[in-house]
């Protein structure tokens, strides 16, 4: 009578399987990292495009201009009525506005994504948390650089191109046409 023995894996077989897993992971990592940058870039452009649509709709609805401004490092943006009391840091615009409380939005881009207005900039610094998927809080007391003003007739004051960059991905730009207020997306070289 033969005994049926269940044979286990040898140490050599386990080492071979572990080596295969390490090689596959090493080959997949660059692709996954690039895909992460792509998701962050799309998230940043979608966030800004949404803010623009909201600002344009508010300008039309309320009959007053709305401004989109960028924080100097290019990591955050703000939307509010184009009235100095909303932008001087006193906070007086929201309570003293004869047109009623205006819509105000402050938001950061995903970590590692930077935007520039009508110009080029260096790629973001990898040490600035470029691998994190979370958005950082909007800097307190940020100084805002005006980028676009949407007018009550649905147009913008001028043509504007906002470029978005993240390490490992081709830059993308959103372009606002002044005459129509329409937004188009372009992949940059």
In short, what is this structure?
This protein has three helices and eight strands, in the order αββααββββββ. The protein has helices at 11-62, 84-87, 92-96, and strands spanning 66-70, 76-81, 105-108, 114-117, 145-150, 160-165, 172-176, 183-187. A hairpin with a 6-residue loop joins β6 (160-165) and β7 (172-176).
Structural notes for this entry:
This protein is an alpha+beta fold and 189 residues long. A hairpin with a 6-residue loop joins strand 7 (172-176) and strand 8 (183-187). The chain is built from three helices and eight strands. The model is unreliable at 122-133 (pLDDT under 50). The protein has one domain: minor pseudopilin epsh domain (minor pseudopilin epsh fold, 3-Layer(bab) Sandwich). The strands form two sheets. Strands 3-2-1-5 form a four-stranded antiparallel beta sheet. A four-stranded antiparallel beta sheet has the order 4-6-7-8, covered by helices on one side.
Helix and strand topology:
Elements: H1 11-62, E1 66-70, E2 76-81, H2 84-87, H3 92-96, E3 105-108, E4 114-117, E5 145-150, E6 160-165, E7 172-176, E8 183-187
Antiparallel strand pairs: 1-2, 1-5, 2-3, 4-6, 6-7, 7-8
Name the helix and strand elements from N-terminus to C-terminus, one letter apiece: HEEHHEEEEEE
CATH 4th-level superfamily: minor pseudopilin epsh domain
Average pLDDT, all residues: 82
Helix amount, in percent? Answer: 25-40%
Number of spatially distinct domains: 1
Order of neighbouring strands in the sheet with most strands? 3-2-1-5
Radius of gyration: 24 Å
Counting helices, strands and paired strands, the structural category is alpha+beta
Biggest beta sheet attributes: 4 strands, antiparallel
Q: Write down the CATH class.
A: Alpha Beta
What CATH architecture label applies? Answer: 3-Layer(bab) Sandwich
Beta fraction = 15-25%
Which stretches of 5+ consecutive residues score pLDDT under 50?
122-133
Q: How far is the N terminus from the C terminus? A: 75 Å
Q: Determine the CATH topology.
A: minor pseudopilin epsh fold
Morphology: elongated
Helical stretch tally: 3
**What's the total number of strands?**
8
């Amino acid at each position: 009578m033969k005994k049926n023995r269940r044979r286990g894996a040898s140490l050599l077989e386990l080492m071979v399987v572990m080596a295969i897993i390490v090689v596959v992971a090493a080959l997949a990592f660059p692709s996954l990292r690039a895909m992460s940058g792509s998701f962050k870039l799309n998230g940043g452009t979608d966030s800004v495009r949404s803010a623009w649509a909201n600002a344009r709709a508010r300008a039309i609805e309320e009959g007053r201009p709305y401004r989109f401004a960028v924080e100097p490092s290019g990591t955050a943006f703000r939307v509010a009525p184009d009235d100095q009391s909303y932008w001087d840091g006193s906070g007086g615009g929201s309570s003293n506005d004869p047109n009623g409380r205006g819509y105000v939005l402050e938001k950061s881009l995903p970590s590692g994504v930077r935007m520039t207005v009508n110009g080029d900039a260096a790629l973001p610094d990898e040490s600035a948390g470029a691998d994190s998927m979370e958005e950082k809080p909007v800097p307190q007391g940020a100084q805002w650089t005006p980028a676009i003003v949407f007018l009550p007739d649905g147009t913008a004051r001028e043509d504007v191109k906002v470029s978005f960059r993240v390490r490992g991905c081709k830059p993308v730009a959103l372009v606002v046409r002044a005459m129509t207020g329409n937004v188009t997306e372009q992949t940059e070289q």
